[in-house]
Amino acid sequence: MSILYLLIPLSLILLGLAVWAFFWAVKNDQFDDLEGPAHRILFDEDENDFTPEERERRRERRNTTDVDSPSERDDR
């Protein structure tokens, strides 16, 4: 029975730490984008890592290689 005098304050301290950690995470925007990492893993490169100029160059390069691909030339 005397162990309860130790366990109850210890559990209240742990509860206080958990509540503090939750509010810290909310304050530091840890819960803003919950789906982004799950979708980002599906792609090889993240387009947001590039500057707008690099994105445009990559888009142009992708469009020119798609048109000149050998499989499309055979279909013509």
Q: How is this fold's topology laid out?
A:
Layout: H1 4-27, H2 36-40, H3 52-67, H4 70-75
Task: Tag the structure with descriptive keywords.
mainly alpha, 4 helices, 0% strand, single chain, 76 residues
Q: What does this molecule look like?
A:
- The chain is rod-shaped.
- The chain has helices at residues 4-27, 36-40, 52-67, 70-75.
- The longest helix is centred in the N-terminal third of the chain and has 24 residues, at 4-27.
- The relative contact order is 0.05.
- By secondary structure, the chain is mainly alpha-helical.
- The chain is built from 4 helices and no strands.
- The model has no long low-confidence stretch (mean pLDDT 82).
Low-pLDDT segments, ≥5 res? none
Instruction: Report the radius of gyration as a whole number of Å.
Output: 27 Å
Terminal-residue CA separation: 87 Å
- What is the makeup of the main sheet? none
Q: What coarse outline follows from CA principal-axis ratios?
A: rod-shaped
Tally of contiguous helical segments: 4
Assembly state (oligomeric) = single chain
Proportion of helical residues:
55-70%
- Proportion of residues in extended strands: under 5%
Task: Provide the structure class.
Answer: mainly alpha
- What order do the SSEs take from the amino end to the carboxyl end, as H and E? HHHH
Number of separate strands: 0
> What does the average pLDDT come to?
82
